Amino acid sequence: MATRHTAYYEADDADKATRQANRRPRNDVPRKTAAEALDGESGVRGGRRLLVDTHRATTRVLRVAYPFLAEGGLGADGTYIGSDVFSGGSFVYDPWVLYQSRAITNPNVLLAGVIGSGKSSTSKALITRSIALGHKAYVPCDPKGEWTAVAEAMGGATIKLGPGLPARLNPLDAGRRPSTVASDEWQRIVWSRRRALLGTLAESTLGRPLAAVEHTALDLALETVSYHAAPTIPDVVVALFTPDRAFAERAGLRTTNLVDDGREVAHAIRRLVHGDLAGMFDGPSTTEFDPTLPMVTLDSSWLGSGGNDEVLRLTLACASSWLEAAVADPAGGNRYIVYDEGWRVMRDPALLRRMQEQWKLSRAWGVSNILIVHRLSDLAAVGDLGSEARALAEGLLADCSTRIMLRQEPDQLARTASLLGLTDVEIATIAKLPKGRALWRLPNRSFVVQLVRHTREVELFDTDARM
Ligand SMILES: Nc1ncnc2c1ncn2[C@@H]1O[C@H](COP(=O)(O)OP(=O)(O)OP(=O)(O)O)[C@@H](O)[C@H]1O
Ligand SMILES: [Mg+2]
User: Fold this and answer.
1) What is the rounded CA–CA span in Å between residue 433 and residue 448?
2) Which region ranges are annotated with the description Disordered (predicted)?
3) How many angstroms is it from 188 CA to the middle of ligand 1?
4) pLDDT tens digit string along 344-393?
5) Which of 394, 457, 384 is nearest to 420 (CA)?
6) Do 349 and 392 meet the contact criterion of CB atoms below 8 Å apart?
7) What residues flank ligand 1, with Cβ below 6 Å?
8) Which atom of ligand 1 is least distant from the CA of 453?
9) Which residues pair with 440 in a beta bridge?
10) Which ligand is nearest to the CA of 116?
């Protein structure tokens, strides 16, 4: 006769579990009765008792015998997020641990959900809790300034950038040379970082890729200013408007040609010196990046750009270049880099190209990029089908092994399902998720997880105060 089911969870040990599973007599695993129970009649989640034999097995065996009821989870190594809605067990996540165990192929995370569904709260919980494990976090994109209080509570720092504010960053800062990198190699790294930034700024402002002659003009201007101890953006603008004769001759050019070639680039970059971004990136840094802090955020809510995302994008380009110097240090530990409201900066191919490079380097740098968007169609909205921007944005999705889906609007479900390869059950689930509950989708597994917050976190993560 069937008796009440009692499953004892034991430590998950692959060898032990396999041996046990092989050794048990067939009738010890109550497949038939369990299958009947799962068949809907007895209402698995309806609170009725399961009529199966009492037995004991490891979670590895149980999760196969009772799918959804005895989920083995992702292990206990990592940051506690909340409860697995189906199994009731704890859900723990750590991209670096999961990368090592090959559960994911890269540490990057895409987080999507409708307005107010709990995207920021989920990422804040993941990050603040993982600081206890020694991880660090940088938030270079915080257009609402909502990470400032979180950074303060964690003993981190916030840099507030905006017209008239005292903080100024020199995006051409070399940063600290890691002890493992030789001096001449470091010079090359710094040169290429500066060059990449100047190219991004020029292309972003001009709204088109640079011509070959403009690349040459920019190369020579950067080479000229690289002899300064701490070159700044105004130095580059001057070098573009008045090229150095010796450098021009060495490149087989006349200075008059160079002036013509670099004129548009010079005007584009000049915007950071005399235009609407003046005073933020046009001189020596007033603050030093402290890589030992657990959290550094960049509050761009003071930019006053309103609906103008272009200023935000240029700020992100400068700030992330400034951050890169610290991120590339192999001794810096594992770091999260969060792009909250990431959809606002994704319209620009030049910036997307830089983000894609960072995504590709994530494993080498020990970095997990977290991109927060409203819906997956934000990635398609960056450009027409076949455009470079769209290919780059959709490439970012492909490079995010973990996709955390909070509630999606009904008109987004079909697209989400096809991009992520979701099952019908998963689609039905994300259509009805309440606040703070998300589908965590990893390459071969998915979990529905309810974020569990401490009362202190509820206060700290609240973004409804003004409502
Ligand atoms: N698990 C939860 N239970 C109840 N309320 C929650 C939960 N998670 C978040 N909230 C609340 O919902 C509100 C919105 O959360 P949050 O700011 O994280 O959403 P969001 O998706 O980032 O919003 P936006 O699209 O505006 O950026 C916050 O005030 C937060 O306290
Ligand atoms: Mg948010």
Assistant:
1) 9
2) 1-33
3) 44
4) 877 777 788 888 888 888 888 889 999 999 888 877 777 777 787 888 88
5) 394
6) yes
7) 113, 115-121, 435-436, 451, 453, 461-464
8) 1
9) 404, 447
10) 1
